[in-house]
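2024-03-11 09:14:02 INFO worker-7 job=invfold-0412 stage=load source=structure_tokens
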């Protein structure tokens, strides 16, 4: 397993439970992952070192968790070394690596998404924004750790976001080009499908909470919590998503010489005229993966191998009827300047509750062996229940057993599902 976050802990937890897994390594891992896998001090972007390690240990299968090594071409170098892996090659990972690439693909293949234009010139972008009006959305083209999107409620805010990216260098190379797109009205959902280059197997849907504060207030983050299933993703909406968005994308990528293998994560807006694509990610969501894995009844390993081998056509997975909900405990100051080093206690008490998993995201052990914060998002407290309300109550019961004075969380994860009743 490549990666070090909550998504990778959830995947390691699921993979370690498989009878097909004799030995699990994670590079670089974290303090929680160390309980289910042997952590290796190799960073996710040290591609050559990862390949050398896989060769030396005779690794049968590599699962790439985060987007950065996928976009950098880790799967390509593993392929070249004859090492089987799960994840898209660099050309296909462009679906996440470049917002503009995805928007252009959608335009060529009539995949429903918001109207847009791409810009490298701030003045031309400002003129387009003034012409379109607000609300309007500005996105850095490249990878910006979930922080490169501005949903601007005024023209001035949108123009400022463009200038921040294009002339202010706020996102570095990732913001050297921007996509300006129409604001979509509706309810967001996260939809996942395993893809083997030709076929796609839909997974469970989830709903993320991007804003840092209760009531969806404050700046966007990498995600402050999630739950699954998402009531907005009815069977009809899921079918439309497969027919109008996922399968046309899979066919288009194959036809254009970049077949996609891995997990395709569609960020959707569900409006009155059905689902539209907001953006694609080329890996499992974080924190959505932390609610998908506890709901999955089937062994995850054969599914990942089938996607890699092009064998998904007749594959199926079984899911628990229960809901799952995860609450992110983040370090104070997140997302801008998270405070590292805060000591954390009570995790074992929380994890001992029936139906609870505490997945580690940004954690490590200090010289005294204490668990400390080592990132913005620190822990993912996940609970299962008969419905979202029960899962939410159990998750917050577990949160309250954790002693983390340097942390905070949202207290309303799951509010949209509860509002539906």
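2024-03-11 09:14:09 INFO worker-7 stage=emit residues=421
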């Amino acid at each position: 397993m490549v990666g070090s976050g909550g998504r990778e802990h959830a995947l390691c937890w699921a993979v370690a439970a498989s009878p097909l897994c004799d030995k699990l390594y994670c590079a670089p891992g974290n303090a929680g992952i160390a309980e289910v896998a042997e952590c290796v001090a190799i960073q996710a972007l040290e591609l050559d070192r990862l390949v050398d390690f896989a060769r030396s240990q005779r690794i049968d299968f590599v699962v790439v968790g985060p987007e950065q090594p996928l976009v950098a071409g880790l799967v390509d170098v593993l392929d070249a070394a004859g090492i089987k892996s799960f994840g898209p090659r660099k050309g296909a990972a462009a679906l996440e690596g470049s917002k503009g690439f995805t928007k252009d693909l959608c335009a060529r293949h009539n995949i429903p998404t918001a109207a847009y234009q791409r810009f490298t010139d701030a003045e031309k972008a400002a003129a387009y924004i003034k012409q379109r009006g607000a609300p309007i959305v500005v996105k850095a083209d490249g990878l910006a750790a979930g922080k490169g999107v501005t949903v601007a409620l005024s023209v001035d805010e949108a123009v400022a976001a463009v200038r921040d990216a294009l002339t202010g260098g706020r996102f570095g190379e990732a913001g050297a080009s921007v996509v300006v797109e129409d604001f979509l009205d509706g309810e967001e959902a996260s939809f996942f499908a395993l893809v083997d280059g030709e076929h796609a197997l839909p997974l469970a849907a989830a709903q993320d909470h991007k804003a840092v504060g209760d009531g969806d207030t404050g700046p966007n983050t990498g995600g402050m919590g999630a739950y699954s299933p998402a009531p907005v993703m009815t069977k009809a909406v899921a079918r439309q998503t497969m027919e109008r968005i996922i399968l046309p994308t899979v066919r288009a990528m194959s036809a254009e010489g970049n077949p996609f293998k891995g997990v395709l994560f569609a960020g959707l807006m569900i409006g009155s005229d059905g689902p539209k694509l907001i953006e694609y990610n080329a890996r499992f969501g974080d924190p959505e993966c932390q609610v998908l894995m506890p709901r999955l009844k089937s062994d995850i390993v054969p599914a990942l191998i089938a996607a890699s081998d092009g064998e998904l056509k007749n594959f199926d997975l079984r899911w628990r009827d229960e809901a799952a909900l995860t609450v992110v405990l983040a370090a104070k100051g997140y997302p801008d300047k998270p405070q590292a080093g805060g000591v954390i206690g009570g995790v074992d008490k929380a994890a001992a509750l029936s139906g609870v998993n505490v997945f580690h995201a940004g954690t490590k052990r200090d010289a005294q062996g204490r668990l400390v914060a080592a990132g913005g998002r620190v822990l993912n407290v996940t609970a299962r229940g008969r419905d979202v309300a029960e899962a939410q109550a159990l998750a917050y019961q577990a949160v309250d057993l954790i002693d983390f004075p340097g942390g905070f969380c949202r207290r309303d994860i799951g509010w949209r599902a509860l509002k539906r009743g």
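2024-03-11 09:14:09 INFO worker-7 stage=report msg="The chain has four domains: 2-90, 121-176, 187-309, 323-420."
2024-03-11 09:14:10 INFO worker-7 job finished
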